[in-house]
Amino acid sequence: MREMCLHTSVKVYTYDEFSQEDRELIDAARNATSRSYAPYSKFNVGAAVRLADGIVVTGNNQENAAYPSGLCAERTTLFWANAQYPDTPIDTLVIAARNENGELGIPIPPCGACRQVILEVEKRYNRAIRIVLYGAKECYVIEDGIKALLPLCFDSDFLDKE
Length: 162
Ligand code: THU
Prior knowledge:
Elements: E1 11-13, H1 20-32, E2 44-51, E3 56-60, H2 73-84, E4 90-99, E5 102-103, H3 112-125, E6 130-133, E7 139-142
Parallel strand pairs: 4-6
Antiparallel strand pairs: 1-7, 2-3, 2-4, 4-5, 6-7
Helix pairs in contact: 2-3
The chain binds tetrahydrodeoxyuridine.
Tetrahydrodeoxyuridine binds at residues 38, 41, 43, 45, 61, 63, 70, 72-74, 108, 110-111, 114.
């Protein structure tokens, strides 16, 4: 037997420590929470991506009375970005959330399904996505892509293996 240790590094920032460019993207994700459609959970999630050429795309969670038919903010945003700009890789993804009491102090991490979609987008463009999870008290930054949040992940490489 041998043990495999899978290392994950998450950097913790406060909002003030980010560059102007990052703060603009963070604010775009925060603003996107206000356009979310979440009448059932009343949990409003916003996402913003900056593409490699600087274009910013935002999205949010879209719920449905048939609950599983709704979609998270991250996937809404990534699918929209890829649908509009299929030739442009994504540089940074920001996620922000608020509930009925306002913005959350501690960031929310992406759900498992969104992690898998982020992985697919990274694979598609052969480029890791920088992920920023916004919280009013502290923010988490994952610099080297989704694999830090999805160890031992399944991707298309396995489909070609014998
Ligand atoms: N949600 C997101 O949009 N992103 C996440 O990372 C976690 C959860 C949404 C789905 C649903 O509309 C609401 O938040 C409550 O789960």
